[in-house]
Design goal:
Layout lengths: L1 H5 L4 E2 L10 E5 L24 H6 L3 H18 L3 E3 L2 E4 L11 E3 L2 H17 L3 E7 L12 E2 L3 H8 L1 H8 L5 E4 L3 E2 L2 E2 L4 H4 L1
Parallel strand pairs: 2-3, 3-6, 4-5, 6-8, 7-9
Antiparallel strand pairs: 1-2, 9-10
Helix pairs in contact: 3-4, 4-6
């Protein structure tokens, strides 16, 4: 298990005891990040889709679904098993450096759009790492910043899009964030992650 966790960047190792095969993963909520592609995958290029805020601005879940299907088809052609996306954090401030990567300031709209992107990708055989779990709404100091909020705000707002993606979208993977909620790292919080 330690080797599995330690080597988890853009791929996951096999775990023979449970029959889990090795997987290749790729980053990018608006399609795959072209900087990770080698010359054998699309000649170094990948499709770039509209950012998630534009998808959500249509209020059309079919757009998110079709984007998920398209990303899934592209993954199949490139031999990619997992997608580090979509991202369903919230727009906490109008100048948030990650707002392009997130659907909306509304937890329900964000959750529904994320759910359908996940469903579309899964139909094409791609598993989506819904990210960045949770309360990672800032680009500044995102790898260790402290987020202070009440449990009610956490449950009703920041966890809601993830809940929809898991319960209704049946996502198979989640990417943890690096920030803290209070003084506890999200990636190290047993209570949050379970």
């Amino acid at each position: 298990v330690a080797d599995f966790l330690a080597d988890g960047g853009l791929a996951t190792n096999a775990i023979d005891s449970i029959g889990k095969p090795p997987c290749v993963d790729s980053d990018g909520p608006s399609g795959f990040n072209t900087t990770i592609f080698g010359s054998d995958q699309f000649g170094g290029y990948a499709a770039s889709y509209p950012c998630e805020v534009m998808i959500a601005s249509t209020w059309n879940w079919r757009m998110a679904y079709r984007m998920g299907q398209s990303v899934g088809a592209e993954a199949e052609a490139a031999g990619i098993d997992g997608w580090y996306g979509p991202a369903c954090n919230l727009h906490r401030a109008p100048y948030g450096g990650r707002n392009f990567e997130y659907y909306s300031e509304d937890p329900y709209l964000s959750g529904v759009m994320c759910k359908y992107a996940v469903i579309g990708a899964k139909e094409e055989g791609l598993y989506a790492y819904v990210k960045h779990f949770v309360a990672n709404e800032s680009e500044a100091n995102r790898s260790g910043g402290y987020t202070w909020l009440t449990e009610q705000a956490l449950r009703e707002n920041y966890l809601k899009p993830f809940e929809i993606a898991v319960k209704e979208g049946k996502t198979l993977a989640i990417m943890s964030s690096y920030n803290r909620i209070g003084a506890t790292r999200t990636s190290g919080s047993y209570n949050l992650l379970t």
